Amino acid sequence: GAGVSQSPSNKVTEKGKDVELRCDPISGHTALYWYRQSLGQGLEFLIYFQGNSAPDKSGLPSDRFSAERTGGSVSTLTIQRTQQEDSAVYLCASSSMGLDGLAGYEQYFGPGTRLTVT
Amino acid sequence: GQNIDQPTEMTATEGAIVQINCTYQTSGFNGLFWYQQHAGEAPTFLSYNVLDGLEEKGRFSSFLSRSKGYSYLLLKELQMKDSASYLCAVKAGGSYIPTFGRGTSLIVHP
User: Fold this and answer.
1) Which is it for strands A10-13 and A113-117: parallel, antiparallel or unpaired?
2) pLDDT digit of tens for each residue in chain B (110 aa)?
3) What is the DSSP letter of B16?
4) Is the peptide bond before A8 cis (omega within 30 degrees of 0)?
């Protein structure tokens, strides 16, 4: 079956421009996460969506970052007035909510969007 | 908050065994993940440990000691394709958001 997809795969933008990154999670997965990963760094949590609940935005680094998830499926991460420090790979992941508390709700990651701000 | 430590880099020989350690400090531990990430690719799930002990999956095994805040990933019969970054991630406090370590870059040489 189809996995998590993200678009675009690469994005080069000029400092100060806005960008939109898209994530299509696995069908039926209620949980969706955005992370970013800089070279040699771990995954930095950005935002988490779960069903119809209010998203957990605690990882967003500034108010230039926002995300939405329409219809409980596709999500868009928007970065306004991009800065050079925003350059990173932005990863989206989805997971299902198992009934077994030991399930762990493993995350399935998309291929990422490599954002370069010049 | 959570503090997760892994070695930055390890090297090993094809056919050998390697152990990648992860230590963590957290309150309300729920579980620990291991993910594999090849260069330029997305992380893929390897294991999830909730209870103490060793869980084996083919060539890969993962161990957890909750009292020591310690886990390791054991890779046997190393193959060149095992060269990748291995990420340790911890869930705690009932959160559905795991915190990731910086990852351990494993280089397997002939």
Assistant:
1) parallel
2) 678 999 999 999 999 999 999 999 998 898 999 999 999 899 999 999 999 999 999 999 999 999 999 999 999 999 999 999 999 999 988 788 889 999 999 999 99
3) -
4) yes
Give dist(CA B18, CA B35) in Å, integer: 16
Q: Contact A77/A3 with Cβ under 8 angstroms? A: no
CB atoms inside a 10 Å sphere around CB A54: 7
- Closest Cα in chain A, distance from residue B96 (Å): 8
Beta-carbon separation of A106 and B45 below 8 A: yes
B53-57 and A108-109 beta bridge pairing: unpaired
Chain B residues within 8 A (CB-CB) of chain A? Answer: 31, 33, 41-45, 48, 50, 87, 89, 91, 96-103
Name the minimum distance, in Å, from the CA of B15 to any CA of chain A: 27
For residue B89, with 0-12 CB atoms within 10 Å meaning exposed, 13-18 middle and 19 or more buried, which class applies? Answer: buried
Nearest-CB residue to A42 (from B45, B97, B102): B102
B/e letters for A13-25, b = 16+ CB within 10 Å, e = fewer, are beeeeebebebbb
Residues of B whose CB is below 8 A from A31: 96
Among chain A residues, the shortest Cα distance to B5 is held by A42
